[in-house]
Design a protein that fits this description.
Layout: H1 2-5, H2 20-37, H3 95-113
């Protein structure tokens, strides 16, 4: 955690930025780059990319340069909210997964507000 809190490059990976581009470059990619530069490994929650060495230059364009957050941009399908840490809910080209995340949230809220059932063992 210290490598994220004490940047030697002067970039604040926890900073607030005004544009989506600045957030992506400075926060999301910034954290990943810093982790890799310190010799740590990054893995992916996405099944497609698990086990890939992201420190290797040949793997930096592993989705043919396509933004995986756009609808249908990962081998013809859309990212699943369960395979990413953050769902870009207001991202205009990422509606399918954002809509699913909203449905999942409603299910979770409904479950949380439902009376708890107690089972008896007999």
């Amino acid at each position: 955690m210290l490598l994220l809190l004490n940047p030697k490059d002067g970039k604040d990976v926890f900073g607030c930025y005004n544009t989506l581009w600045d957030v992506t470059v400075n926060n999301e990619l910034g954290i990943s780059a810093r982790i890799l530069n310190f010799g740590f490994w990054i893995d992916s929650l996405q099944t497609k990319y698990q086990g890939i060495d992201f420190s290797s230059i040949e793997n930096r364009n592993c989705n043919a340069g396509k933004n995986p957050y756009f609808d249908n941009n990962v081998d013809g399908i859309t990212l699943d909210p369960y395979e990413v840490v953050f769902v870009k809910y207001n991202y205009k080209n990422y509606r399918q997964a954002a809509d699913r995340a909203g449905v999942y949230q409603n299910w979770t809220l409904r479950l949380a507000s439902a009376p708890q059932q107690v089972s008896s063992s007999g």
